Amino acid sequence: MSKRKRPETDPPGLVDSERAILNVIKSKKDIGIWARDIKQETKLADHVVTKSLKSLLTKKLIKEVVNIQNKGKKHYMAVEFEPSKEISGGEWYVDGNLDKALINVLEQLCFRYIRAQKVVTLEGVHNELKKNRVVTFDISSQQVGEILNSMVLDNNIIEVKSTGLRDYHSIPIGTVCYRVASAAGVAKGLRIGAFASIPCGACPRISLCTPDGVISPSNCVYYARWLNIDF
C-alpha cells in the first residue's frame, strides 16, 4: 500500500506536529490564533506545541503578532497574512501601541477647522482632512468620527443638532454637527440630549424640513412657540 502523497503546497522539512499547527494557524488567516487555542485545536502536548512554534518561527513560516485587545497573549499568524484591524488596531496603532502623536495632530487640525467654520458636520471635517492630505492613508469617515468623539469626550468640542437657523442655515435640520465647546457655542446650538425635548425631536416630517423649504423653522408655529420668540 503506497503512502498518501502530501499536497505540493506543504513546505518541505516539516514534522507532523509542525504541519498540524501550521494548518491551524493558516486557517485563521488575518485574525491569528492564541497559543492556548492552538493547543486545544491540535490536542498536542504543551511542550510539543512550544517546540513546534519556535521551529515554525525560525523557518519564517509564521510570525508573532500583537493583539491590541489582549497584549498579554501571544498570537501567531502565517507570514502571508497581515493582521486585521481588529487585531492591529489599524492606522491608529504602531507595533501594538496607540499612535498618540498622529491622533494629537489630527485633533488639532479638526479643532482649527471647527473653530474657523463655527459649526461643521462629520462630512465636512472628513472632506477637509482628505483635501489637505494630512495622513498617508485613505482616512475613512468612521475614523474621523472616532477623532471627533474623542474630542467630545475631552470637552474640546460639543455635539449638537442643526436648528436650520443662523450658523446652521446651510445644514438640514436634525443633522448632527460639531462646534467648539465654549459658552457661546453652547448658547447657539442644541445639545443632543436636549434635542428630544423640542418639537423637532418628535416631528414626523423633520427629514423634509429645510431652511428655505415649504416646511421650515421660519413657518413652524410649534417651533416658534417652543422658542417663545416671534419670527
From TrEMBL:
<dbReference type="Pfam" id="PF05158">
    <property type="entry name" value="RNA_pol_Rpc34"/>
</dbReference>
<dbReference type="GO" id="GO:0005654">
    <property type="term" value="C:nucleoplasm"/>
</dbReference>
<keyword id="KW-0240">DNA-directed RNA polymerase</keyword>
<keyword id="KW-0804">Transcription</keyword>
<dbReference type="GO" id="GO:0005737">
    <property type="term" value="C:cytoplasm"/>
</dbReference>
<dbReference type="InterPro" id="IPR016049">
    <property type="entry name" value="RNA_pol_Rpc34-like"/>
</dbReference>
<protein>
    <recommendedName>
        <fullName>DNA-directed RNA polymerase III subunit RPC6</fullName>
    </recommendedName>
</protein>
<dbReference type="GO" id="GO:0005666">
    <property type="term" value="C:RNA polymerase III complex"/>
</dbReference>
<dbReference type="InterPro" id="IPR036388">
    <property type="entry name" value="WH-like_DNA-bd_sf"/>
</dbReference>
<dbReference type="InterPro" id="IPR007832">
    <property type="entry name" value="RNA_pol_Rpc34"/>
</dbReference>
<dbReference type="InterPro" id="IPR036390">
    <property type="entry name" value="WH_DNA-bd_sf"/>
</dbReference>
<keyword id="KW-0539">Nucleus</keyword>
<comment type="similarity">
    <text>Belongs to the eukaryotic RPC34/RPC39 RNA polymerase subunit family.</text>
</comment>
<dbReference type="GO" id="GO:0006383">
    <property type="term" value="P:transcription by RNA polymerase III"/>
</dbReference>
